């Protein structure tokens, strides 16, 4: 059973649930969290552009099923593909920050 008695912050909770930074469990959690953020940003940008998944896929040169997987956080994405979807498909520029 996990000990939540010392949890005071969200970071503390993540550590109890997924381990310290650098652990396998924590790395997987962080990866899934980043994919969720990307999927929500893509979904929101597509809806703002009034495009269906099929229309976005056509503009970006990919398949609707791929856009659907990304929006549902299920697909692996290459950086070049992400840039193409946003720039060609949505006419948006993206920026990356490395921490």
Explain this structure to me?
The chain has 99 residues and is mainly alpha-helical. The chain has one domain: Orthogonal Bundle (434 Repressor (Amino-terminal Domain)). The chain is built from five helices and no strands. It has helices at 10-18, 24-48, 53-60, 64-71, 79-90. The radius of gyration is 17 Å and the shape is elongated. The protein starts with 9 loop residues before the first helix and ends in a 9-residue tail after the last helix. The model has no long low-confidence stretch (mean pLDDT 93).
SSE layout and pairing:
Layout (H helix, E strand, L loop, with lengths): L9 H9 L5 H25 L4 H8 L3 H8 L7 H12 L9
Helix pairs in contact: 3-4, 3-5
